[in-house]
Amino acid sequence: MDWSKTKTIFIVVFLILDIFLFILFVQKYEDSQLETIGDLSTTERLADENVTLGELPDVADSRPYLNAESYRFVNSDVQQLEGQSAIIREGQILDSVLAEPVAIDDPEDPEELNELLEDFVLYGEEYTFWDYDEEDNQLIYFQTYDDLTLYYNLNAQIAVQLNEENEAVSYEQTYLTSLEEFADEQQLREPRSILETFYDRNLIQPNSTAVDLELGYYPPFVQVTAGESDEATTQVLTPTWKMTIENESGDEYDLYMNAVDGSIFDMSQVDLDFDQLEENDETAE
């Protein structure tokens, strides 16, 4: 018997066995780690991944639902407007061209339009600047109620069109009227619960902080517009949380939640093109 070869064979066999056992050990360790992570509560996982609540403003703990109607503009509305030429489209859209363009220094903060909206736009004091749409070169304003923003509501916004020189030259407007509160107040989700829900849905990454929380209203169901009749379209608005998240790199983004039942609204899927109202009216005829 060649003991040298036999010795080599034993060494190779034991080496393979050691490698096999090591692999089993690593797999077992990783499985135990995953089980441990799975057993952690959401609160523990938030702490483990450094997801925190910043210094948030005081927020309401209850609010009622709202009922509202889409406003149908009439000729007397147009006659009130000065320094512009306006027409009414499909009853619900006021389309106006300004006689004199208004220069805007910073589209991200269009202070020059504040006075214009308050003095020359119907119910202009009820709108707040929301965003600059760089792709369409438009300034977007959302209607408010009781100082609360009506988020992403096609029937409650103003889109101000800018030209190539960043001058406001025209605008389109829709408006919600007859806003009434339901009798019963609804208990709202608390900040910690909001953060945990977003985190559980993988919408918040490690080392992030909730830096702001605001309450507004949003219609959770598809809005159906009326035809060319005088009958107004009604919609129910639900209290909605907007939580601003700052990630590790310092970038901020907003997340939205039904403040009553905790369902999440994906505002990236909301289309605010006024043409929808005309298309829906044609469908309703």
From TrEMBL:
Matches recorded under Pfam families: YycI
Transmembrane segments: 6-26
Entry annotated with the keyword Cell membrane: no
Domain Regulatory protein YycH-like per the UniProt entry, residue ranges: 42-259
Keywords: Membrane, Transmembrane, Transmembrane helix
InterPro entries: YycH/YycI_2, YycI-like
Gene Ontology, cellular component aspect: membrane
Protein name in the entry: Regulatory protein YycH-like domain-containing protein
Protein species of origin: Jeotgalibacillus alimentarius
